[in-house]
């Protein structure tokens, strides 16, 4: 048990049902270094937040740098919390990606300025009110220096975080217990995607979004699949190149809608981003536009074959 800033990590996920699922000891299965899904753009809709989008199948939840927003299935804004930092044990000023699980929104929060983050915390907000219920600090010994995204592995009952900051911090993803808040480990990404913005879990696999395309050169950003096992490292395979966006800009965090099976990803366009901060606009824009892109997901032929073989 560890403490920081006068509060105890072990009480963070109070109320969660305790259950465990063993991690396979097998080596990473990377014989198929291809996408597991085919992605087809369905539509887009503009939102107020610029950091991430998730869904519980009933609503869309969007994070802004300093706000949380709730949208109905038609893309209408129905609820906002623009004072989301009230109640945090340590002062924070920035929200990254989010996830939603069991009626709670998991928020990646920190103090962030000009590419530097500190005082990393995981905030758990009520999905009905968008208000903070409880929070806990990260484990400093992990080496994580910033938090850009967060997701819940609902099978293993763990929480994963990513770091946008490069060098040593950005080479890993960081795992915590959902039930106790205890730091478990970090996993080395091989190879390492550049500028990781978000992470989500879907059907036994982890995926990360990376802002690795240069907007000035009209380069697309990417989605990567991370093949995590019990090893200290995990192979990374490019899952999708986002060539469909209206203008190349900045990818953020996303997730899969459990009701439709669609991939949701938030993109920002129009603004120039320097060290993670908006610094002016591109020609033709006088504001930043944040949009949710919805993609239909269809398993690839080999992925369908693998699922069929597993059932037999």
Structure write-up:
This protein has 312 residues and is mainly beta. It has a single domain (35-311), classed as Lipocalin. The chain is built from one helix and 24 strands. The chain has one helix at residues 301-311, and strands spanning 3-4, 7-8, 37-47, 52-55, 60-64, 67-71, 77-81, 94-101, 104-113, 116-126, 132-137, 149-153, 158-162, 172-177, 183-190, 196-202, 205-210, 222-226, 233-241, 250-256, 263-269, 271-274, 277-281, 289-299. It has an eight-stranded mixed β-sheet, with no helix packed on it. Strand 10 and strand 11 form a beta hairpin. It is globular and about 45 Å long. Residues 1-12 and 14-28 have low confidence and may be disordered.
